[in-house]
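Why should sequence recovery work at all? Because a backbone constrains its sequence more than one might expect. Tight turns favour small or flexible residues, buried strands favour hydrophobic ones, and helices have their own preferences. The token representation captures these environments compactly. In the example below, the structure is given first.
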């Protein structure tokens, strides 16, 4: 059950997970660019299926579990260090490692405009979901609300990348977001009660696409 999301918490979530927040999320596609190149994602329907699978069985599910663990550990430097190291170890390719690390570092730098003790506890090398989960918890944002916003932002970024890659237009992209509301809400609810034992991925094609992107010559994105 989610807690009460007050106006201040809502405003902070809107700021932290806005496309305008200075973390450089627009530069990454999480392997989607290679999936488009390899004709694995050709239409808005393909994109919806791709993202739904990541939410339930792939990297976004693991992000959700890590996010919630970081939320629980936000007052423990040792706990945050452990979950951060695990999050980085779970990155399936060099680019995915670089992506989550770059976004995590940039988020910590930008979010420090809202002072909190958690910034002294977070390790220097922190993956993105761990950074957001810990900071949101430190500011009293209910974990289910914070995670739903995080996952929605991640899906929105992928849709934006797909539009730039020519997979779909803006209207189709908005329809994908509408179609995925349930797939975003359910992982957010389930992950709130998860433990690290629930980590796991079964998206072999997505992992291979991320690995193959490292050798792609012509590209718009860094991953």
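From this structural description, the recovered sequence reads:
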């Amino acid at each position: 059950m989610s807690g009460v999301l007050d106006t201040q918490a809502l405003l902070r979530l809107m700021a932290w997970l806005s496309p305008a927040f200075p973390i450089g999320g627009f530069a990454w596609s999480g392997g989607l660019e290679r999936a488009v190149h390899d004709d694995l994602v050709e239409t808005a329907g393909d994109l919806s299926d791709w993202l739904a699978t990541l939410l339930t069985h792939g990297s976004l599910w693991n992000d959700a579990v890590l996010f919630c663990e970081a939320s629980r550990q936000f007052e423990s430097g040792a706990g945050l260090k452990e979950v951060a190291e695990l999050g980085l170890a779970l990155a399936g390719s060099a680019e995915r490692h670089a992506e989550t690390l770059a976004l995590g570092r940039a988020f910590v730098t930008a979010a420090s405009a809202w002072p909190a003790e958690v910034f002294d506890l977070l390790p220097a090398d922190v993956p993105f979901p761990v950074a957001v989960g810990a900071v949101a918890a430190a500011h009293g944002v209910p974990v289910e609300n914070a995670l739903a916003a995080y996952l929605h932002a991640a899906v929105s970024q992928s849709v934006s990348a797909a539009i730039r890659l020519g997979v779909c237009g803006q209207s189709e992209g908005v329809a994908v977001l509408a179609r995925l509301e349930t797939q975003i809400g359910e992982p957010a609810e389930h992950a709130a009660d998860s433990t690290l034992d629930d980590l796991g991925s079964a998206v072999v094609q997505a992992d291979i696409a991320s690995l193959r992107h490292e050798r792609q010559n012509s590209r718009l994105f860094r991953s």
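A few observations help interpret the result. Residues 7-16+30-210 form a domain with the Urease accessory protein UreF fold (CATH 1.10.4190.10).
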